[in-house]
C-alpha cells in the first residue's frame, strides 16, 4: 500500500508546473490575481521571469495566452474555475479553441468543496461549459499523483486543455509506482459485475470507499475513474454498460452537462442502460465547510453507497 | 516618403478598396464601410511598415498584425492578396462554402493572418500576448493591431490597455480606426466611447491623433510609435466607406453588401480614382 498524501489537487498542479518548467523553457504561467490560491505561486517563486500576473482581468488573460501560444510559447492560464471558464468562456472559444492554440487553462476551486465562499465561487458548470467547445480537452484528476501526471501530459499535448483543480485537501489513493495516466482512458479501480460506478475528480475516492464497503458486504460493484471527461473513454463505458447493465455516475458538478451527461451520450447511442447521476441537481450551492457541504449534497461515501444500494435493489 | 512612394501606396489602397467591394458583393454580405476606412492603414502596414515575407508567412521573426476589428477583413484580404500571400481570385469567393477566406479572419486557413479574430475586444489581448512573447525572447519584432472606435466600448480593450501599459509593451502599436459610426448609429449616440486618446494615455500609452487617409501622417505616427518607450496608440480619424461616394459616412453601410447596381457604381468610382492615380 502506497503512502497516503493528503493534498489539494491545486497544490499538486502547482508543483507539477514547476517540475515541467525545469526542462521546458517555453512554459509561461499566467494568473489573474489568484496565484496564492491556484498555487501558480509555486511556479512564480521558482521562475519569476516566466510568470505573468495579469491582474483581475480573466478575459484579457486568456487573450494574452492565445497571443503567447500563437508566438510559440506554452502558456498556462489559471484562475478559479468560475472565472476562467465562466467569465472568459468566449475568449476561450474564439481566441483559443477556434484557432486550436496550445493554451492550458486551469480552473481551481471547482465544485461545492470550495466551501465557505459560497455559491458565487462554487463552480458547478465548468465541465459542461468546456465540454461544448470543439477540440477542447477536459481533465478532472482525482488525487495528487493523478494531477501531477495529468498536468505533465497536458503540457506535452499540443492543443487546448482545460484542467479542473480542487481547493480541498484530499487523500491520495493511487500508487505512484504503478499509476499510469493514459490520455482519454478511464481506469477501472474495482472489478464487478452487478453495477458500474463511474466517478470523476474528488468523488473518485469517496466512491472507492463506498464500493469497497459494498464489496466487503458481498456485492459486486465495478468502479471506473474518468479523469479525461473529453475525449471520454467510450470503449470502457460501453463495456461496463454491456457487462453490468446499470451505471451510476458521481461528480461534483451540475448533473446537467457534466460527467453524467457525457456518459449518457455514450450509452444512449451505443448501449442504452439505466444511468443514475449523482451530482448537484440544477441548483446553486451555499456557504459552509467543504466536508459538510459534500455530505449534504450526497457526495461522500455514505451518500454514494446509499444510491448504489437503491440501484442494486431495482 | 517620396511623392512616388506615396502615389504607389495610394494606388495599392485604391486596389484594396476595389478588392473589398468585389469581396462583399460576391459574398452578398460583409462589412464594406469599415473595410474602406481602414484600407489605407492596412496598405501602409503591409507595404511600408511591417517586416514580413509573403513567401514565408510563419517566419518566426516577422512583425505581427492582429485585426482586432475582424469584420473589416475584406480590405485586409485584398492587401494580403496584393502582397502575394494568396491569389486575388480568392476575393470573389469570400464567405462562400469551402472558401479559404472566412467571414472573419482565420489564422489556421489563411496565409498572412497572424491571429483569428472577429469577436470584438479580443484581438488587442492577443496582440498583447504576442508583444509579451517578443519581450520574453528579447526579439525586436513588433506587433500591430487595428481596432474600431465602436470596439473600444468593449471592457476587454481596457483590460488589455492596462496590461500593455503595466507590462511596458513598447513593441505594441494599437491603431484605432475612428470613423465615428457603428451599427446602431454614431459612436456618440450609441456608447459614448470618446475621448479615446486620453483613455489610452491614462493606461500608460503615448498617443497621436492623425488623419487615417494621409500616408505622410501615418508614416510620422509610426516613427513616433517606434521611438516611444511606451505602448503607442494611433488614433486615426477616418471616413467610413471612404472612396465610394454613396457609402461615405453612412451608418447603413456598416454591414451590408452592395447590390449589382451599387456594385457597378462603386467599381466605376474606384476605377476612376485608380486611373487618375496611375495617370
Give your account of this protein's structure.
The complex is a heterodimer of chains A (314) and B (279). By secondary structure, chain A is α/β, with parallel strands linked by helices. Chain A folds into two domains: 6-171, Thiamin diphosphate (ThDP)-binding fold, Pyr/PP domains (Rossmann fold, 3-Layer(aba) Sandwich), CATH 3.40.50; 187-309, Rossmann fold (3-Layer(aba) Sandwich). Chain A is built from 13 helices and 14 strands. In chain A, strands 3-2-4-5-7-6-12 form a seven-stranded mixed β-sheet, sandwiched between helices. In chain A, strands 9-11-10-13-14 form a five-stranded mixed β-sheet, sandwiched between helices. A two-stranded antiparallel ribbon of chain A has the order 1-8. In chain A, helix 9 (203-216) crosses helix 13. With 279 residues, chain B is an alpha/beta fold. Chain B has a single domain, classed as Rossmann fold. Chain B has nine helices and seven strands. In chain B, helix 5 (155-166) links the parallel strand 2 (143-148) and strand 3. The model of chain B has no long low-confidence stretch (mean pLDDT 98). Classes of the chains: A alpha/beta (314), B alpha/beta (279). The A-B interface holds A 28, 49-50, 52, 54-55, 57, 59-60, 62-73, 75, 90-91, 94-95, 98-100 and B 60, 64, 66, 106-108, 114-119, 121-134, 136, 155-156, 159-160, 162-163, 166-167.
Amino acid at each position: 500500500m502506497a503512502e497516503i498524501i493528503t493534498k489539494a489537487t491545486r497544490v499538486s498542479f502547482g508543483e507539477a508546473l514547476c517540475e515541467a518548467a525545469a526542462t521546458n523553457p517555453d512554459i509561461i504561467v499566467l494568473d489573474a490575481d489568484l496565484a496564492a490560491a491556484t498555487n501558480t505561486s509555486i511556479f512564480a517563486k521558482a521562475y519569476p521571469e516566466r510568470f505573468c500576473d495579469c491582474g483581475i482581468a480573466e478575459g484579457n488573460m486568456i487573450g494574452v495566452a492565445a497571443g503567447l501560444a500563437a508566438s510559440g510559447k506554452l502558456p498556462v492560464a489559471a484562475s478559479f474555475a468560475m472565472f476562467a471558464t465562466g467569465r472568459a468562456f468566449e475568449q476561450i472559444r474564439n481566441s483559443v479553441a477556434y484557432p486550436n492554440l496550445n493554451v492550458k487553462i486551469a480552473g481551481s476551486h471547482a465544485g461545492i468543496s470550495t466551501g465557505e465562499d459560497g455559491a458565487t465561487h462554487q463552480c458547478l458548470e465548468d465541465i459542461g461549459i468546456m465540454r461544448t467547445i470543439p477540440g477542447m480537452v477536459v481533465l478532472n484528476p482525482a488525487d495528487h499523483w493523478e494531477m501531477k501526471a495529468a498536468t505533465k501530459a497536458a503540457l506535452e499535448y499540443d492543443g487546448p486543455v482545460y484542467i479542473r483543480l480542487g481547493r480541498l485537501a484530499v487523500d491520495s489513493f493511487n500508487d505512484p509506482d504503478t499509476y499510469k495516466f493514459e490520455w482519454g482512458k478511464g481506469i477501472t479501480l474495482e472489478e464487478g459485475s452487478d453495477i458500474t460506478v463511474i466517478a470523476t475528480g474528488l468523488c473518485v475516492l469517496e466512491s472507492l470507499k463506498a464500493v469497497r464497503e459494498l464489496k466487503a458486504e458481498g456485492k459486486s460493484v465495478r468502479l471506473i475513474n474518468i479523469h479525461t471527461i473529453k475525449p471520454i473513454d467510450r470503449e470502457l463505458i460501453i463495456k461496463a454498460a454491456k457487462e453490468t447493465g446499470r451505471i451510476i455516475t458521481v461528480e461534483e458538478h451540475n448533473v446537467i452537462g457534466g460527467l453524467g451527461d457525457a456518459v449518457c451520450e455514450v450509452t444512449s447511442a451505443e448501449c442504452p442502460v439505466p444511468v443514475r447521476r449523482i451530482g448537484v441537481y440544477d441548483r446553486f450551492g451555499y456557504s459552509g465547510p467543504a466536508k459538510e457541504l459534500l455530505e449534504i449534497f450526497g457526495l461522500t461515501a455514505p451518500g454514494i453507497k446509499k444510491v448504489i444500494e437503491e440501484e442494486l435493489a431495482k | 516618403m517620396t511623392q512616388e512612394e506615396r502615389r504607389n501606396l495610394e494606388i495599392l489602397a485604391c486596389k484594396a478598396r476595389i478588392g473589398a467591394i468585389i469581396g462583399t458583393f460576391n459574398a452578398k454580405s460583409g462589412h464594406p464601410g469599415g473595410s474602406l476606412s481602414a484600407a489605407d492603414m492596412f496598405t501602409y502596414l503591409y507595404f511600408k511598415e511591417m517586416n514580413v515575407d509573403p513567401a514565408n508567412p510563419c517566419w518566426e521573426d516577422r512583425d505581427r498584425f492582429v485585426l482586432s476589428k475582424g469584420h473589416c477583413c475584406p480590405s485586409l484580404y485584398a492587401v494580403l492578396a496584393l502582397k502575394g500571400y494568396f491569389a486575388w481570385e480568392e476575393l470573389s469567393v469570400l464567405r462562400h462554402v469551402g472558401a479559404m477566406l472566412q467571414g472573419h479572419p482565420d489564422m489556421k486557413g489563411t496565409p498572412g493572418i497572424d491571429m483569428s479574430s472577429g469577436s470584438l475586444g479580443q484581438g488587442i489581448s492577443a496582440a498583447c500576448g504576442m508583444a509579451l512573447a517578443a519581450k520574453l525572447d528579447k526579439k525586436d519584432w513588433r506587433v500591430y493591431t487595428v481596432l474600431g472606435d465602436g470596439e473600444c466600448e468593449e471592457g476587454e480593450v481596457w483590460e488589455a490597455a492596462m496590461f500593455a501599459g503595466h507590462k511596458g509593451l513598447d513593441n505594441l502599436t494599437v491603431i484605432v480606426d475612428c470613423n465615428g459610426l457603428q451599427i446602431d448609429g454614431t459612436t456618440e449616440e450609441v456608447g459614448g466611447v470618446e475621448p479615446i486618446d486620453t483613455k489610452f494615455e491614462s493606461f500608460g500609452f503615448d498617443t497621436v491623433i492623425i488623419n487615417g487617409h494621409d500616408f505622410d501622417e501615418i508614416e510620422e505616427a509610426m516613427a513616433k510609435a517606434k521611438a516611444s518607450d511606451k505602448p503607442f496608440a494611433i488614433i486615426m480619424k477616418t471616413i467610413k466607406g471612404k472612396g465610394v461616394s454613396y457609402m461615405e459616412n453612412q451608418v447603413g453601410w456598416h454591414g451590408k453588401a452592395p447590390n449589382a447596381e451599387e456594385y457597378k457604381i462603386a467599381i466605376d468610382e474606384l476605377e476612376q480614382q485608380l486611373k487618375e492615380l496611375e495617370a
